[in-house]
């Protein structure tokens, strides 16, 4: 497996070549929208980008940055849920969490395909048991 720093350095060389002439790390950092010190740490293998940095890098260099960093590609539905969750009332967050964990456990335990009618039926039942009515 290629180390992140090697992948990242290759991406710098590719970008530099696409510019048609030699470029500085400062120019690359500016292109990516990251600090020069962060860029130097990643290129030297001294630091790894965090989730926010990976998203910024992915916007310019592509989603393969996640694999290069040994991370999974973010799930847009999970990101939306994570952003909305804190503004919900605490009691509802607790019930939603309990219901989702219970439904996922039951689906996995029974070996039901997640996109099946049976999984949907089971999820609706578990939500209802937690006081959450799901309508179509």
Percent of residues in beta strands: under 5%
How many helix segments?
8
User: What's the overall average pLDDT, rounded?
Assistant: 91
| Element-level helix/strand string | HHHHHHHH
Q: How many distinct beta strands?
A: 0
CA-to-CA gap between the ends?
45 Å
Whole-number tally of structural domains: 2
CATH structural fold name of the largest domain:
434 Repressor (Amino-terminal Domain)
Stretches where pLDDT falls below 50 for ≥5 residues?
none
Q: Calculate Rg over CA atoms.
A: 22 Å
Helix proportion: 55-70%
CATH-scheme architecture of the largest domain: Orthogonal Bundle
Biggest sheet features: none
Core attributes:
single chain; 136 residues; mainly alpha; 434 Repressor (Amino-terminal Domain); 2 domains; 67% helix; 0% strand
Would you give an account of this structure?
There is one protein chain. The chain has helices at residues 4-19, 25-32, 36-43, 51-61, 64-68, 76-84, 90-110, 117-129. It has eight helices and no strands. With 136 residues, it is an all-alpha fold. Helix 2 (25-32) packs across helix 3 (36-43) and helix 7 runs antiparallel to helix 8. Helices cover 67% and strands 0% of the residues. It has two domains: 4-68, 434 Repressor (Amino-terminal Domain) (Orthogonal Bundle); 76-129, no CATH class.
